[in-house]
Design a protein that fits this description.
By secondary structure, the chain is an alpha/beta fold. It has 13 helices and 13 strands.
């Protein structure tokens, strides 16, 4: 048993009892199917997200009677858990345009990953390839909460972030296929994508991007800029020592850095309950405030992102966010994703928490769109990705001399590729 003190919107709550009772009180009302399969796979003490079911099984509630003068609809979601700060309100106002934007962006990300899966199985994409299926609400919601000039840096599950940041699917798929028309000219592949001017990539070493994020934030502060560096990592990287060093420096120098843990509950094939002694990733920095968010609800993600952005931009220093999300596919394309969890578990999460279906439900429930309109958006996304795939497939591979370029900030002659000097 232990005593834990947490800051919440209603003040300071002292929690007593053993670890098991704490978890059971925080995570309730999970559907029978999801509960049995998740606990069977992850263990009884695993941090399992709460789900409230209603029509089509989605937890956000819309209230037409709470429409404001601008025709917006009030959407409620489960309260945020916070650490060393007050909590933002657990509702947001939205409208047709915003929901359609979210539906479109997430559908594009999902479809691009479906195409990536196909290309990999055709051996047109080689090496490591980590798909983002299921986690789209994090990228879409956080992008809506941030500035286009805000630097973003993440790990190797970066394809969706490319699209969210404004890169074209064509250059993204071309990079996946190691083509010269790719965003990194075919040199980076799946794990090392970059988009000028504000996406600092995918990084292949677990957790290695987090101190880089702190460094980018240091540059922002040094130059007197108002941007915030959004530094993303997974629950597998949450136990890395370099992350805690980055926490320390960010707090010590009051850097405008937001550390965002995309907790999809599995570090490769190891569940969080088997890998982490402390499952409250948003509390891990001790001296830095934190917030836990339903990472499958794009409106909750945006609300929390705006709250944190305002905090950090005001000069108060770094912040830690935990996104409670889930990946439908294996860790990478070489992982079937079924040896450490059941198919029923994945199906249950899809049925209860899918981020795209949540938005679809809100649009239809509030008569903001028809099934036919949403189908047209999905068909447009399908065609866009088919065109991008055709472009990438027909693009050339880089010339051999590209091996020697972009090694230095300024190109310098390299003996093997420089033009020979003619002596008269």
């Amino acid at each position: 048993a232990r005593r834990r003190i947490r800051m919440t919107s209603s003040g300071i709550n002292a929690e007593y009892g053993g670890y098991q009772s704490m978890m059971s009180s925080k995570f309730t009302r999970l559907s029978t199917t999801a509960s049995s399969s998740l606990r069977g796979c992850l263990g009884s003490k695993t941090n399992i997200p709460s789900i409230t079911t209603f029509s089509r099984g989605f937890a956000s509630k819309s209230k037409k009677e709470d429409q404001n003068a601008g025709g917006k609809i009030k959407i409620e979601f489960k309260p945020f858990e916070v650490y060393r700060c007050d909590a933002p309100e657990n509702f947001a106002y939205t409208d047709k345009a915003e929901l359609l934007d979210f539906f479109t962006l997430m559908s594009r990300m999902r479809r691009m990953e479906v195409v990536s899966d196909q290309l990999y199985k055709q051996k047109l994409i080689r090496g490591f390839c980590h798909l983002y299926n299921g986690q789209e609400a994090v990228a879409a919601g956080m992008e809506a909460a941030s500035l286009k000039t805000d630097p973003v840096i993440t790990a190797y599950r970066d394809h969706g972030w490319m699209v969210a940041r404004g890169a074209s699917p064509a250059e993204t798929l071309a990079e996946l296929m190691m083509k010269a028309t790719g965003c990194s000219r075919g040199k980076g592949g799946s794990m090392h994508m970059f988009h000028i001017p504000s996406f600092y990539g995918g990084h292949g070493i677990v957790g290695a991007q987090t101190p880089l994020g702190a460094g980018i934030a240091f540059a922002l502060k040094y130059r007197g800029q108002k941007e915030v560096c959004w530094t993303y990592y997974g629950d597998g990287a949450a136990n890395q020592g370099q992350l805690f060093e980055a926490y320390n420096m960010a707090k010590l120098w009051s850097l405008p850095c937001v550390f965002v843990c995309e907790n999809n509950h599995y570090a490769m094939g190891t569940s969080t309950g088997r890998a982490s002694a402390d499952l409250n990733y948003f509390e891990r920095a001790h001296f830095i405030p934190g917030i836990k968010v339903d990472g499958m609800n794009v409106l909750a993600v945006k609300k929390a992102g705006e709250f944190v952005a305002d905090y950090v931009r005001s000069g108060k220093g770094p912040f830690v966010m935990e996104m409670d999300t889930y990946r439908y596919v294996g860790h990478s394309m070489s992982d079937p994703g079924t040896t450490y969890r059941t198919r029923d578990e994945v199906s249950a999460i899809r049925a209860e928490r899918d981020p795209i279906e949540k938005v679809r439900h809100l649009l239809l429930q509030n008569n903001l769109a028809t099934e036919e309109e949403l189908k047209q958006i999905e068909n447009a996304a399908r065609k866009e990705m088919d065109d991008a795939m055709e472009f990438a497939t027909k693009s050339p591979f880089p010339d051999d001399k590209e091996v020697f370029t972009h090694i230095y900030s300024k190109d310098v002659p390299t003996r093997s590729v420089e033009t020979p000097t003619v002596v008269s």
